[in-house]
Structures are given as structure tokens and as C-alpha cells.
Specification:
Layout: H1 2-27, E1 46-47, E2 52-53, H2 63-71, E3 81-84, H3 93-100, E4 109-116, E5 125-131, H4 137-158, H5 163-167, E6 170-174, E7 177-182, H6 186-197
Antiparallel strand pairs: 1-2, 3-4, 4-5, 5-7, 6-7
Length: 199
């Protein structure tokens, strides 16, 4: 009798473990990564401390996490405010998205963030955008080129001493995002983005 009970308990435990494993696979959502970086899209078993998954794949960061992780290496820089997609405050990302990115709406993006200097007269900016439709990622890169042209035009008549950093700005794709960096050390920041993305 005890043997039959133990067998029944073992069968139930095995079934419960299998059901739990199946449910956890169905619940873990992973968003595909696009762009030229070749980032992996599987996000199961992510270790946020290590920055990689248990199977050795690179962790997929949100746009804000990506900016924060990179800029923590540049603590003396002018960037003092970051706002991301979903921030509906009057001065948040969603409110200014269309104006900043030439008609791009928050719904056109699966993710996005901007870090900038709130002190007037500084052109410093990091914009990180991911298209909702992966086939349109290169269009976002082109939009960032147009944004850079717009920033050049704005500062040409307002504060021309900012033009050298605008002229040395970097626009590139990494980690599945289109990225614009306007800063004196834009090249170093670009390298930090690429290293963080595992490019």
C-alpha cells in the first residue's frame, strides 16, 4: 500500500514540475532585436547583475537601461536628465517624441529614450530609438541624421561655440537601436555603446 502511495506522489510531482516548466516558458516574453548589431532575442534566465543570460547570450537592455549603463562611465559629463518611452509627463519622452524625431510617434517605437543637458546652451544629447517595425529601423537612423542637421541649424545662430561637438557627433546602430550622440567625447561614448551591446 505504501509503495502505491509513493508511486502516485512521484507521478504527481513529475507532472507538476513539467507543468510549471511549460508555464514559465509560455510566460517569459522576449522581444526580438533588430538592426545591425545581431543581438540575441531570447531573454529567458536573464541575470541582470551579470548582463548576460544563463546560456551566455547578451542581455537585452531597455533604451533607458542602455543609456544609464553607458553613461555611468562618464560621470563628469553634462547629461543630467533621461526620459524614456512611456513617460507621459508634460516634459517627458512621449510629449516631445514627435517634435524631436520629425513626426515619429511613440507608437512607432518599441522603445526609446533621450538623455540631455538641462542647462541652457548645451547641445549634448544621447538619443536611443528602436522601431516597432524592425524593417523600419534604418529609417530611424535617417531621422537621427535629420535631427543632427536640425541641431546644427539651431545652434548656428544661437550658440556657435557648440557647433564643433555637433559636427563631431556620432550616429550609428548598436544593440538593435539607432543612436545619436552629441558630446565632446562622442567617439568614446559610441565605443562604450558598442561594447555594452557586445558589437
Amino acid at each position: 500500500m505504501i509503495t502505491h502511495i509513493l508511486k502516485a506522489v512521484c507521478v504527481l510531482c513529475t507532472a507538476a514540475c513539467a507543468a510549471a516548466a511549460f508555464a514559465s516558458c509560455g510566460d517569459s516574453s522576449s522581444s526580438g532585436s533588430s538592426g545591425s548589431s545581431g543581438s540575441s532575442s531570447g531573454s529567458s534566465h536573464i541575470s541582470h547583475e551579470s548582463g548576460s543570460t544563463s546560456d551566455g547570450q547578451q542581455e537585452e537592455l531597455t533604451a533607458k537601461e542602455y543609456i544609464d549603463k553607458v553613461l555611468e562611465n562618464f560621470p563628469d559629463h553634462l547629461f543630467d536628465t533621461t526620459t524614456a518611452k512611456g513617460d507621459t509627463a508634460a516634459d517627458g519622452f512621449d510629449a516631445y517624441c514627435k517634435k524631436l524625431y520629425l513626426g515619429t510617434m511613440p507608437d512607432d517605437l518599441s522603445d526609446g529614450a533621450i538623455s540631455y543637458a538641462t542647462q541652457g546652451g548645451n547641445a549634448d544629447e544621447v538619443s536611443v530609438l528602436k522601431a516597432a517595425d524592425p524593417d523600419k529601423q534604418s529609417e530611424l537612423t535617417d531621422i537621427l541624421k535629420q535631427r543632427l542637421d536640425m541641431r546644427h541649424h539651431d545652434f548656428e545662430g544661437y550658440k556657435p561655440e557648440e557647433l564643433p561637438k555637433i559636427e563631431k557627433a556620432k550616429i550609428f546602430e548598436a544593440g538593435g537601436y539607432s543612436i545619436l550622440v552629441i558630446a565632446d567625447n562622442a567617439e568614446d561614448i559610441e565605443k562604450a555603446f558598442e561594447e555594452t551591446a557586445g558589437n
